[in-house]
Amino acid sequence: MSVTTDTNIIGGVAAKFRTCPATGLDIDLAAQRLIKANAVAAIVFLAIGGLFGLLVALTRWPAVHLLSSDMFYLVLTAHGLDVLLVWIIFFEIAVLYFASAILLNCRLAAPRIAWVAFGLMMAGALLANVTVLQGEASVMFTSYVPLKAPPNFYLGLILFAVGALLGCFIFLGTLVIAKEEKTYEGSIPLVTFGALTACIIAVFTIASGAIILIPTWLWSLGYISHIDTVMYKLVWWAMGHSSQQINMAAQVAIWYAIPAILLGAKPLSEKVSRAAFLMYILFLQLASAHHMLVEPGISSEWKVFNTSYAIYLAVLGSMIHGMSIPGAIEAAQRRNGFTNGVFEWLRRAPWANPAWAGMFLSLVMFGFLGGISGVVLGTEQINIMLHNTLYVPGHFHATVVAGTTLAFMAITYLLVPLIFQREIIWPRLAKWQPYLFGLGAAGISLFMMGAGTLGVSRRHWDITFSDATLSFDYPPAAFLMLGLNGMSGILAAIGGGLFVVIIVASVLFGKKVDASNIVAALGPKPQKQMSDAVTSYGSAGTFHLPGTYILVSIFFTAFVLYYFVNWKYLSELWQMG
Amino acid sequence: MALTSPESKIWWNERIGRAELVWITIAFLWGVFMFSMMVWWHLEGNQNLSNEVYRIAPTKFEEKTEAFTEKYTVREEAGMPVAKPEPGAEVYMLSRLWEWWPILELKKGQTYRLHLSSMDWQHGFSLQPVNINIQVHPGLEHVVTLTPTQTGEFSVVCNEFCGVGHHTMVGRIHVVE
Ligand code: HEM
Ligand SMILES: [Cu+2]
């Protein structure tokens, strides 16, 4: 039984706690309610935004061409807004509260203000959505000036951002309280450290957002007469792209968390993993460069330095995680007794557990599809071949859908028993969900990248140009790519829909979780072959990890080959200077 | 584990495993290489985006483009003038809702200075099927040096969303021997 008491007072401040039957941690009920609210809001917007994504994909499939052009641009604007901003950020707030109050065994700072933050975010999201759906704000979620939306569109975004900023301060406040009230010993856990990284970057990006959105709002109201188009993009993307580093930090934290919960994995080296997170903060700079590589009025020196995050040091951070996470998993599994051959540890991982499957697919697809394509796309000269083609959405569906979204889905399968205290309903169906969604997400990423390589424009209603004065035909392969993209979109939508249905049904009707069934509720785990606990080994780095070395070598080879292939294509382009 | 505080309190003194050190070194060097590649291409490569940009009022750019078009028009195509400048000339193409104007006829192997700007919103100059993509802003005149290496009929698709007629915005460049 999980007990609820208010006698459990930490640091002299009354907060109501229950004891977690799995970990023995004290769980602040206010934090628990807020995590639930933010996670539920996130999932609702994922459902809406995902449906919009499906409509977009079906319209871009030339044989289906579902929506009218007006509706297409409207729905595409709403899709970007609801998934990239609303779904991801609501969920990240839930992750921040979890990584602070829950993991640090602490009460959440200022729950009332956290509710205000939630209310602001919700009001902002609704306002922006209503404005878009009314049809006057089909400016894409990037709203590049001088395209102009009604003031309420910008106001909605500003309210949402202010709410998220408050959420960040609640997280930081909770860290301070935990430290003062000594609810943990030594340093904060790695996962919390990752969340801290995400939070620091979030404060920076939200500030950039305010710097650009507030003047744009005033411009839309008529108080400001002119906004510089290049400056707008520069500052807008200081929010838009840097915030992808928030997603990165949050999802890497989850990649560490899930193997820790299910397999007892430990980082190979706390020092290396933390340094890698630190690189995200130190070398983030103006990642907006990625969106400005073929823009006039910005020097090449600036572009080269910023697009590479100072000689690829932030990329280095990700590459380090790319080894230390599979390494931690392999070390844990070898400790668990799966020592046969090179890959028994991976084969015998709990593939029927949706949390595990989602996490591992997310890691692999983010690295191979999203990471490699991102570095190639962000190479100053190669960007000339790819800017604003479908390659760009192809790349970021690999990062933000196959990567972040799938990672968030995976951790949700653990949050439901741990925080909502419910069992996952229909475990058989849940088992398949990450594979369906992962396959669909990989499909939309790859096929959009394929179409982009063939020159197909992003944000474009009609690649047959039927209403244009001058005609143009993309190669037939481009039509094939868009067809395959549409089919993958259906698959992703089914996978995403299943997720929403399973989680909502589990939260409403799932069997209650208490001490008797909490362990089972976390889903299948590998049967340990040896009894000595994983908790006792020292520096895991001393292990020999052949499987990880092979995986990393395959990754690196793919990276290098793909990088050079693109330079070769570039060298065949018309000469320009 | 990753969810709890590090076991050794002074975790920053732990030794880093060899494999990790090797990988960090390789990844770092690869980063340095990729960075150098971009710099090197500026020096030795033939595909770089020019940094020659001027501020200009849209009306002024329109005048310049009209003067250019008047001087070089050789025929009409779909109701649009086709300008055929001499090799090496200053060439103008403007973008506006929803056209690229005028049509150009260039010679293979010759180098031109192409001036791009927008009359209204941002547009995307996407030369197809070559696949050269350049962002076009109102108020900025971007001068790009271009040397066609193929002959044929090429299209300029707009690939920056510019309102309800975005998908009808197609321009044309012919390249002849
Ligand atoms: C069922 C799942 C999804 C499908 C089928 C889908 C499909 C698409 C398609 C076809 C586009 C349009 C590309 C274009 O024409 O330019 C698009 C754009 C986009 N998608 Fe998705 N998507 C899905 C889920 C997501 C998720 C979960 C996210 C974020 C976490 C996301 C983020 C975006 C963004 C930011 C854009 C760009 C919008 C713009 O250009 O303004 N998508 N998606
Ligand atoms: Cu346009």
SSE blueprint:
The complex is a heterodimer of chains A (about 575) and B (about 180).
Chain A: E1 4-5, E2 17-19, E3 26-28, H1 29-60, H2 69-102, H3 111-133, H4 151-180, H5 190-221, H6 229-240, H7 242-263, H8 270-282, H9 300-307, H10 309-335, H11 344-347, H12 354-377, H13 383-386, H14 391-418, H15 427-453, H16 476-509, H17 518-521, H18 546-571, E4 575-576
Antiparallel strand pairs in A: 1-2, 2-3
Helix pairs in contact in A: 1-2, 1-3, 1-16, 2-3, 2-4, 2-5, 3-4, 4-5, 5-6, 5-7, 5-8, 7-10, 7-12, 7-14, 8-10, 10-18, 12-14, 12-15, 12-18, 14-15, 14-16, 15-16
Chain B: H1 18-44, E1 52-55, H2 58-72, E2 73-77, E3 80-83, E4 90-96, E5 99-101, E6 103-107, E7 112-118, E8 123-128, E9 132-136, E10 140-147, E11 152-158, E12 170-176
Parallel strand pairs in B: 3-6, 4-7, 6-12
Antiparallel strand pairs in B: 1-10, 2-3, 4-5, 7-10, 8-9, 8-11, 11-12
Bound molecules: protoporphyrin IX containing FE (HEM) and copper (II) ion (CU).
